[in-house]
Hints:
The complex is a heterodimer of chains A (357) and B (559).
Chain A: H1 5-26, H2 36-47, E1 49-54, H3 58-72, E2 77-82, H4 85-98, E3 105-109, H5 110-118, H6 128-132, E4 147-159, E5 184-187, H7 194-206, H8 208-219, E6 224-226, H9 229-238, E7 243-247, H10 248-252, E8 260-263, E9 268-277, H11 284-295, H12 297-305, E10 309-310, H13 313-318, E11 331-333, H14 339-343, H15 345-356
Helix pairs in contact in A: 2-11, 3-12, 4-5, 7-8
Chain B: H1 4-16, H2 26-34, H3 36-69, H4 75-81, H5 90-101, H6 107-116, H7 127-151, H8 155-163, H9 168-197, H10 200-205, H11 213-222, H12 229-253, H13 279-305, E1 307-313, E2 316-321, H14 324-330, H15 335-366, H16 374-380, H17 387-400, H18 404-408, H19 413-435, H20 440-448, H21 453-482, H22 498-508, H23 513-558
Antiparallel strand pairs in B: 1-2
Helix pairs in contact in B: 1-12, 1-17, 2-12, 3-7, 3-9, 3-13, 5-13, 7-9, 7-13, 7-19, 7-21, 8-9, 9-12, 9-19, 11-12, 13-23, 14-23, 15-16, 15-19, 15-21, 17-19, 19-21, 20-21, 21-23, 22-23
Amino acid sequence: MKVSMVNAIAIVLIVIIAGVAIYGWIRPIPEKTITIEESLEDLAKTEGTVTIYSSMDAPDFESVMKPAFLKVYPWAQTSFVGLDAQDVSSRMTTEYTAGHVTMDVAVNGFPVTYTAIQAGAAENWINPMIALMAYPNGTYDPQGSWGPTYSLPICIAYNTNLVNASEVPTSYQGLGDPKWDHKIAMEDPAVLQVTAALFAHLYPTMGNASWTSFMQSIAANHPVLTESSSDAFSKLALGEASISLIFVNDFLGMSPGTPINVTWIEPATAFTVIGVLAKNAPHPNMAKLFLQWLASADGQYALARTGRIPLNPAIAKDTLLKGLVPTGMNIVVADSNNPDFVANPGNWSTLFRSIFG
Amino acid sequence: MIVILPVAYLMIGSFYLKVGGVSLTFPQFLNTITSQQTASLLSTTLLLALGNAAVAILVGTVYTWIIVRTDIPGKRLFDTLSVLPLTMPFLVKAFSWILVFSPQIGLGNIAFESITGLDGPFNIYTFEGLIFAMSLGAIPIVYLTLKPVIMSVDPSLEEASRIAGKGVLKTLFRVTFPVILPAMLSAFVLVTVFGLGNFDYPLMLGGNNIKTLATEVYYLLFHQLPPAYGQAAAIGIIYLVMTLAAITFYLYFTRKAYKFVVVTGKAPRPTLYKLGKWKHFAFAVCFTVLFLGFILPFGGLVLMSLASSYTVYGHNVIVTWSIDNYVKALNLPMFFNAVTNTVVLGFASAVIATLLAALLAYAALKSRVRGARLIEYISAIPLAFPGIIYGLALFWTFLFLPGISDLLYGTVWPLVMALVVIRLPYSVRMISGSLMQISDDLEAAARVAGASRLRSLRRVILPLLKSGLLNSFEYTFINSLRELGAVILLVTPGTIVLTSLLLNLYSQHASALGIVAAASVMLCVMIMLVLLLVPLFQRLMSWGNRVIASRRKEPLEKT
């Protein structure tokens, strides 16, 4: 029987393919153990760089966080953009809407960033470090839309040249005392950071009537409203104000000789800063690697070196909180008892504006 | 296109683009522009802007005339230092004013109380305080606009008035000021519009009591969640209407442009009035303007930069002196990158804005094409919006427009465009003021002699415009270095500029005030060096022109 050249080639090819298939079927598949870090790091190496947008100030990131990250991953590169919390959130949302995302990771205040998450600008990803480091509930989203970074406990600060320690209020309601008229500097609650988080936290326990009266008493003292806690601290340090509500890291990072001291009032709260993986991030694996590192012991200790309280409770107690907070005082996550504040921050911004102007 | 497209995109996009799941509806749009709150904000904004412009024009005109047309001692120094108030970024300048005139800690009040024993009267946190701060900052704009015009006034007009028996003051009011009136109106329009859109001073010094449309826009963009882009754009419409009204007034008053022509074929040599016994008084007036406008706030800034800690209580100022802030500023990880980006962007935007402005001004004033004056309207559109709104418009354009976003978003070009576009109206006004004084006969004579349009532009018009062009370059470069509002939304990892770095540091790091002050002092010094180089460059150009002219004569002499 005559077989054409073409048919012969086809037969040979079929035999080869069949042979390979049979071999693949009968060959035992070796078991490969893949660790989380190895596979993610391998994938991240193909990307090489991560872009972080954050409300953290650039020098702290560049001089502390970046070297610590690069010590663990010397092949990596980072790009950092420091903006106000609102800017980070609106940039995240707008870029996602436009379909032109440049950020990989956002490290930003919780209520402000949650708006961007609600708009769909965040990728869900369960950070394996959360389970490994035993982060408590409230420090991460179980669905994976945000994860732990650091917290900023809120305290009362006073200028020691202008106020004696005995005069400082022992309750939040004390801020409404007329003796503090024109003497309070605080971040504008409409900015939805330190004061907003604290006031929102107090709302459920005080009730609407009592809380509204409390807000109005503070407004009646004509507080100087600033764009940030750091700005309020600056006014306090200069002597333009006598008392203020600030993040404790402002106090921890102050220059020697600054006449400021702090005191704590219960319930002591902390403002949460979260880490978010941007949806459609240009470098998703590098982003995951960075977020994983940030939640690790190494990342948490690096954050402590910048004067920020690590969100991991054990590391927080081992670092900055040691000796800073009175024994037995618990610091709770601000606004953790106010789901409406988390879900509808815009409404609260409008409410605060109507009270404080 | 670069002027109209972003504005159109912002206006239309605010209705159709759902950013954060929110877009503007027409009822919301109407409600925003017709609400009582908006009306109240509008009246405050107008009062502030017009008050600021009135003071700036009054003081600025007198100041400029004294420096340009009299034999005041230190004339050249005053000329160089007059634009110094422009060197300080708004953020730190506002803080300097607080250091000097805050009712609680202001050094001005402390000094007053120490000397007189009475309570210090100064309070920068008032309406009057705002006008004071804004008008002092606007005097350089008046100076840059009026200087080339006052220099170009034909001295024969004033000589004729003097010969007729009129004194200096009568000549000033009956001859000189009417001639420079269009330029004064031009400066008034510029300063008014500048005041309408300024949000830095009302934000930092207005407190809860003084709110303007610009601070409302800032609130809508940066305090609302999600940002109320649509309502901010709606307020932008109000700005557009106000600015177009202002430009219309300006064009109406300067319609008969030839009436004000004073630069003709005869080269003018401006009269220098001898002040005689009034010399010291005039010097005191000019020095006071410079002192209040620059020396005082800059002094406050230097004080902050040299203090590792600074606090005031009672009449006591407690300072720990140190140069640490400068060391820390120089060691900021992104400092040199930010400075390089800032200088490169500033230079590029100054060159492009000046060239564009010269072309636009020439087309608007000298072209016989119908609707040429429309170019002036269009070039003024960026004036209509505060920098942050125009920055938002450009941000949307570069992010949402297909094709453009892939090519340009994340690069340096959006920032260059933002800086060019927001400064273009000022450049056009500065150059228009000078161009209006140049007779068409000069160009006609060149054309009759056989020169092409381009050659007559290059050999006749541009040399006469030299002063206006340099002022435009100087103004755009300096303001680009300190611009924040228009660029903050466009900054990306590779394009950090100094002002965004300083803002980030100031608002997120409590003890960074001294470092911010130190970096700002260095920025001011950098700008001052540029200001010193510009006259040097001018003299170099003149020397070069003389050399070229003298070499051109040689072949003729040999034959």
